[in-house]
Amino acid sequence: MAPIERITLFKIPNEADRERVLEQYKVLKETATKDGKPYILAAAVGSSFPDPRNKGYTLSVKTTFASLEDMKYYDSECEAHTALKAVARPVSEDVLTTYYENIL
Question: Any idea of the CA torsion for 58, 42, 88, 54, to the nearest 10 degrees?
Answer without folding.
Answer: 20
